[in-house]
Amino acid sequence: MTTAFVAGATGFTGREVVRALVEQGVRAFAHVRPDSPRFSEWQKRFSEMGALADSTAWTEDAMAETLGRLAPDVMFGLLGTTRARAKAERAATGKRVDYETIDHALTALLLKAALRSGHRPRFVYLSAAGTPDGDRPPLSAYGAARWKTEREVKTSGLPFVIARPSFIAGPGREDDRPAERFGVAVADGALRAAGVLGMRRLSERYRSTTNTALAQSLVRLALDPAAAGRVYESEALRRCS
Fold first, then answer.
1. How far apart are CA 156 and CA 145, in angstroms?
2. Please, which pLDDT band fits residue 204 given cuts at 50, 70 and 90?
3. How far is the C-alpha of 13 from the C-alpha of 78, rounded, in Å?
4. pLDDT tens digits, residue range 89-142?
5. Are 218 and 209 in contact (CB under 8 A)?
6. C-alpha to C-alpha distance for 234 and 241, rounded to whole angstroms
7. Which of 135, 110, 147 is nearest to 29 (CA)?
8. What are residue 164's DSSP bridge partners?
9. How far apart are CA 84 and CA 238, in angstroms?
10. Which domains does the chain have, with CATH numbers?
11. β-bridge mates for residue 161, sequence order
């Protein structure tokens, strides 16, 4: 049986990835940070899906030990934060929380732990549309973190899949984002118009996708040997769902 380890499993896309893995008959381990006040709730939710919750500490040694023991065939790096969530966590814990410490540093830790584990799992990294392939990082902190992480995934020595979806929409998001919902609606409307006017490639690249459709695409790519070593933009991801 194929085994998968999902980091970022409690996120909007992550929990749908766990669900899709179980539906494909994959033995899924859903990581929940050990200090989460909602650990028992997530453990119950994942158990009801047919998955197992894992609470390994966010240290390279602990992750390497867990990955060595579980020997996953595939790993998912679905980690990310938002400005609002980072601000709230900094206020609550006093720790530095931002795109660098979450989006980049935790994924880099996972890569190092996987290499130390003695196995070579395929690493599926959830990046973002607009991340450049060149040698110059974007100016935004968010874009720079994604660009930097992609480079480390590509040079890690692990077989990888990188996904660059645009806006991720759909019901069930636990953190309310009215501004983002409005922005998605406006952007999708403009992109539909662009498609009608002949700019179909632009429309396909940047219109939104649902978390469920994205999760199905990620799981299919993770289980497809021919997908390794490739970067998938939104339009390619949509064709896989």
1. 16
2. low
3. 8
4. 666 666 777 899 999 999 999 999 999 999 999 999 999 988 999 889 998 999
5. no
6. 11
7. 110
8. 233
9. 29
10. 3-175+209-240 (3.40.50.720)
11. 124, 230
